[in-house]
UniProtKB/TrEMBL annotation:
Coiled coil: none
Key words of the record: Membrane, Transmembrane, Transmembrane helix
InterPro entries reported in the protein's UniProt record: CGLD27-like
Organism encoding this protein: cyanobacterium endosymbiont of Braarudosphaera bigelowii
Tagged with keyword Zinc: no
UniProt-recorded name of the protein: DUF1230 domain-containing protein
Pfam families according to UniProt: CGLD27-like
Length: 169
């Protein structure tokens, strides 16, 4: 009979990387990044549309649609893009944090407050488990977010160049 040694983890449950990952995965905001490709794209379009509705009155005040429709549309797109980039950056920041906690061989935790933190070395089984989760669950999410931000940044750059060209002409 094989004997298993149970190592007592002194890290509070809510500060263990695996539990932080599970909590992040199920939170209403951060689960936006974990959804299927179609749902992720739909959510991005919804957020962009809300941003467009919020930024279009400001763009209309600067560039009346009946006088300069192209500048109005480009300005509204840029405003919507700013909102979307801020949301994507917040999502990326949260997932990067979890990725870092899963990747490390040690866990820094607070026992009762910020002034008495401790570091605990993970057992090798926990390191392997956490790195597998990081590689197969978290990395694809982070890569998706980075690719989305990159594409959105490119689109916003093109819109900025169009805006600069037509606003000075």
């Amino acid at each position: 009979m094989r004997r298993q040694f149970i190592k007592v983890c002194p890290v509070p449950s809510e500060q263990q990387p695996i539990n932080e990952y599970e909590e992040l995965k199920t939170s209403w905001f951060f689960c936006l990044a974990t959804s299927e490709k179609y749902l992720f794209l739909r959510n991005i379009i919804i957020i962009w549309s809300i941003g467009w509705l919020l930024s279009s009155p400001l763009a209309a005040a600067s560039f009346p649609p009946d006088q300069s429709l192209l500048l109005f549309v480009v300005s509204s797109d840029l405003g919507a893009g700013v909102l979307l980039i801020l949301i994507l950056l917040q999502l990326t920041s949260g997932w990067y944090h979890i990725k870092g906690r899963l990747k490390k061989k040690t866990i820094f935790y607070e026992e009762s407050g910020w002034y008495d933190g401790q570091t605990w070395i993970k057992p090798s089984e926990m390191v392997i488990r956490d790195r597998l989760i990081m590689s197969y669950q978290v990395n694809p999410i982070v890569n998706r977010l980075i690719n989305t931000i990159s594409l959105l940044s490119l689109v916003m750059f093109v819109h900025t160049m169009i805006w600069l060209y037509f606003s000075t002409a």
